[in-house]
Write a structure and sequence with these properties.
By secondary structure, the chain is mainly alpha-helical. The protein has helices at residues 44-56, 77-80, 110-128; strands at residues 2-3, 25-26, 98-99, 107-108. GO terms for molecular function: metal ion binding; metallocarboxypeptidase activity.
């Protein structure tokens, strides 16, 4: 358990007329899991994944560059670790198309929704081809 000294907030310029004199208490969850390993950004799985992103979000005269990012949630990630080490925490949507994320009014523009469908359709089709007929010795090799 860690406590934050309220005097540390004295230099913070208030945005609203609110008194900042409370305390924050942080707890460690007893059954917390370790951070998920970093997924590979090279090799056949990445090539299909990144290639599908490039194809699905291509625009005339533009270059699509799939890159890594940090996701703070990762609440479901631990469930996939027994299936594969290639866990890419990514949502196929352009910036600005999601609105009201995790609110009662969460929504996405129709164009963004259709692009998501296009991406998932392409991803499934692309993974059917290059690995079809290959025998995988263990799920962790995916």
């Amino acid at each position: 358990m860690a406590k934050v000294d309220p005097s540390a907030m004295r230099d913070v310029k208030p945005k609203y007329d609110v008194e900042y004199n409370g305390t924050v208490t942080l707890y460690t969850k007893k059954d917390a899991s370790n951070a998920t390993p970093i997924s590979l950004t090279e090799g056949p799985m990445w090539d299909v994944f990144a290639g599908t992103i490039r194809y699905s979000f291509a625009a005339k005269g533009k270059t699509v560059v799939p890159t890594g990012a940090t996701m703070t949630g990762n609440t479901d990630t631990r469930h996939y670790l027994k299936l594969t080490r290639n866990i890419y925490r990514w949502t196929p949507v352009r910036l600005g198309q999601f609105e009201g994320l995790h609110t009662v009014d969460e929504r996405i523009e129709m164009k963004g929704h259709m692009e998501m469908l296009k991406f998932y359709y392409n991803l499934i089709r692309n993974f059917q081809g290059p690995f079809e007929g290959e025998r995988v010795a263990a799920p962790s090799e995916l």
